[in-house]
Predict the 3D structure of the following.
Amino acid sequence: MGEITYTRGDATAPSVKGVKLIAHVCNDIGGWGKGFVVAVSRRWPEPEAAYRAWHRGRASNDFGLGAAQFVQVEPYVWVANLIGQRGIRTGSKGVPVRYEAIDEALGRLADKALELGASVHMPRIGCGLAGGKWSRVEPLILARLVARGLAVTVYDHGQDGATALGT
């Protein structure tokens, strides 16, 4: 059985040995430029370029809610672009987060992590700009990743206390 480890730090710089899969939630409209993706793009250009190309080609690929894209950025580091957010703004339909899409994408993430023999690293996905609640996301991670024996590390970066993190 795996577990979730909570730590303070930068999810783009996991300090464990072995293959690492860094997961984050993206929107379904091709927007990239705020939130955790800024830190990802600061370290590697490939995930943004791959996401934008994936969105551009959406008529003939699997881009959409619940999809996952895996981009190798270093010999032992991959970034997982998970589509778990409808649009980018809170409006009449509520916040952008889509828990069912995150759940579906986490299933794909688990398959890839097991295939690679990778540990999984992430911020509190879906709980920043997407407006989700960690109390709804954490059980999905437990069911999809931890129950399959994967080690998951969740990073809190520069924020103090659970209320700032959407719990």
Notes: The beta strands are 3-8, 20-27, 68-74, 77-85, 119-122, 151-156. Residues 160-167 have pLDDT under 50 and may be disordered. The chain is about 30% helix and 25% strand. The longest strand covers residues 77-85.
